[in-house]
Amino acid sequence: MSVGKDLTRGILAENPTFRLLLGMCPTLAISTSVMNGIGMGLAATFVLIGSNLIISLVRSFIPDKIRIPCYITIIAMFVTVVDLVMAGFTPALHETLGIFIPLIVVNCIILQRAESFASKKPVINSIADGLGMGLGFTLALTVLSLIRETLGTGAVLAAPDFNFAGLRIIPEEFKALIVVMAPGGFITLGLVLGFINWLTRRVGVQDL
After folding, report:
1. pLDDT tens, 152-192?
2. Range of the structural domain that residue 156 is part of
3. d(CA 52, CA 50)
4. Residue 164 backbone phi and psi in degrees, to 5
5. pTM recorded for the entire structure
6. 48, 145, 158, 196: which is deepest, by most CB within 10 A?
7. Contact status, residue 189 vs residue 144, Cβ threshold 8 Å
8. Among residues 15, 132, 113, which one has the least CA distance to residue 59?
């Protein structure tokens, strides 16, 4: 498969959230604001690219029996970098995401790409796959966060690290707080998945 297809596959056809249903725990937990979604998505993208790159480079040197511990060690290295950078430059976002940053180490999206793709493919294809999957994950988080933040708080793009309260879209008295709570996360995800499935059948494009 070409590098271009490896890049674009994760954005739509095999979107890790909307098509493969991977990484549901952080998706539901942190998609309460757009900044949270973008922050988590970019963090996961960095880890995906870095871990895919290293794993593809050393795949022929890793004994098969210890490949998973080796993958986790490599992934943990990049997660540590992300954790320290976010703590230093975006402390409010780092505090909000909390435990979900270290848990990127065992995120099934990253482990799945390491096991099924980077351990078998050349470096350039593995980088493209990591970037595509990361962008797809970021896109999904952003879409869900945009819906939940707008309906649940009435504002969007609130960024405490930059002292920005967000853009008011819906009057305060009409916000639906349940949307940014746990039940709202499941409801929003279910409705979006239903819409995507309907649209895929409607337009007749199975790889949308």
Report:
1. 888 888 788 777 777 888 888 888 888 989 899 999 999 99
2. 3-203
3. 6
4. -120, 120
5. 0.88
6. 48
7. yes
8. 113
DSSP summary character for residue 62 = S
Burial 144-165 (b: 16+ CB within 10 A, else e): bbbbbbbbbbbbbbbbbbeeee
Task: Specify if 38 maps to a domain.
Answer: yes
Residue 208 is assigned to a structural domain of this protein: no
Which tokens is 10 given?
């994760």
Does residue 1 carry a pLDDT above 70? Answer: no
Residue 192 maps to a domain = yes
Residue 128 corresponds to which amino acid?
A
Nearest to 47 by CA among 27, 76, 69: 76
Count: domains in the chain: 1
Q: How far apart are CA 15 and CA 6, in angstroms?
A: 12
Please check whether residue 33 lies inside any domain of the structure.
yes
Q: Which residues of 45-62 are buried (b: 16+ CB within 10 A; e: fewer)?
A: bbbbbbbbbbbbeebeeb
The residue with tokens 């979006």 is 192
Q: So what's the pLDDT on residue 199?
A: 85
Distance CA 184, CA 187 (A): 5
